[in-house]
Amino acid sequence: MGMVSPAGLTMNEPPRSHFEAGTATPGGRQAGGRQAGGIRAARSRGAILVGVLWVLVFLAFLAVVLRLHMTGVVASVRVTEDKAAARIVADAGLARAAALVLAGPEGGIGELLDQLQGSVETSTGRASLYMTNEALRVDVNTADEALVVGVLRASGATPAQAAALASRIFERRGTQEVEEDGAPGRSLAQRADAFQSVAELALVEGMPAELALAMERFSTVSSGLPGVRLHALDLGLLNAIPGIPAPVVAAIEASRAGRLSRDELLALLASVEYHTSEKAISWRVRMEVELPSGYRETYEALVTISPEDDVAYRVIDWRRIADGSVAQ
């Protein structure tokens, strides 16, 4: 569109740029499109990279978890194998313990010491053995009443409480009728199976649980003896047994201090009530097992060993010691 100048001349208006006209040139559209496409591609590549990184992190996490899991599995399998191997070595230890008893002195088992030590070593591991004859404990099934009273008092019972509980223990032991071989009548005999384990003392009427637990260190159910080795008893138990003469206690203390020989002491005890020189057929065997790997286990077994038996030994009780517990 033209303009008329004052001089009457007509002038054309200069063309406006496309940008001023608010429109884009074809070339501009192409350049802007390429720029926007590049931004979108860059964003897409960044998102993919971030996703890949997260996947790698996740896979690394899974790898760590799997490694920890497999480490735990391997350790568990190894411990299981060690436990099985330790038990095999302990079984070998029991066989060795039986051999020590059965191959004792020429005079027989009765001349064995009350406490023995030994060991056995195999390609699997080694077991150290510590054996104690059950004659060193009071058998609550067969012992004289004074010994049971002494165990109760040494374990913390008052004199009146000890007398009452001992009476109930004897009631539980009771008597039973048995036929005598070659005789037409019947007779009364003490039941030797009243208590199957020392833990059953807790079932006696009026027996406090803590008292029954304290009695375990002095008691057994497997010696079958009415007496006990007085010279080997804990002094607390020895002094708690009613009827033990004071000179006997003094002689035992003198022997332990080296002022009296063992033979002199045993000669003195031979005539003392409640003392026994018999050997129980039951033994308490402690086995400390160590494997080449360094793995250790401790077991305690209560076994009977007798030349008259058709097997080398019979297990009465067996347990793994992990918390100071002992076989009964």
Sum up the overall morphology in one term.
elongated
- Contiguous low-pLDDT stretches (5 residues minimum) are 1-11, 17-24, 176-180, 182-190
Order of helices and strands: EEHEEEHHEEHEHHHEEE
Provide mean pLDDT, rounded: 82
Task: Tell me the total number of β-strands.
Answer: 11
Radius of gyration: 45 Å
Spatial strand order of the main sheet? 3-4-9-10-11
Question: Between the first and last Cα atoms, what is the distance in angstroms?
Answer: 124 Å
Structural class: alpha+beta
Strand content: 15-25%
Q: How many helices in DSSP terms?
A: 7
Give the fraction of residues assigned to helices. Answer: 40-55%
Largest sheet composition: 5 strands, antiparallel
What is this structure's SSE topology?
Elements: E1 2-4, E2 10-12, H1 26-102, E3 115-121, E4 126-133, E5 138-139, H2 145-154, H3 159-173, E6 175-179, E7 186-190, H4 209-215, E8 219-220, H5 235-240, H6 246-256, H7 262-269, E9 282-290, E10 296-304, E11 314-320
Helix pairs in contact: 2-3, 6-7
Walkthrough of the structure:
- The chain has 328 residues and is an alpha+beta fold.
- Helix 2 packs across helix 3 (159-173).
- The strands form 4 sheets. The chain has a 5-stranded antiparallel β-sheet, with helices on one face. The protein has a two-stranded antiparallel sheet with strand order 1-2. A two-stranded parallel sheet has the order 5-8.
- The chain has helices at residues 26-102, 145-154, 159-173, 209-215, 235-240, 246-256, 262-269; strands spanning 2-4, 10-12, 115-121, 126-133, 138-139, 175-179, 186-190, 219-220, 282-290, 296-304, 314-320.
- Helix content is 41%, strand content 18%.
- Strand 9 (282-290) and strand 10 form a beta hairpin.
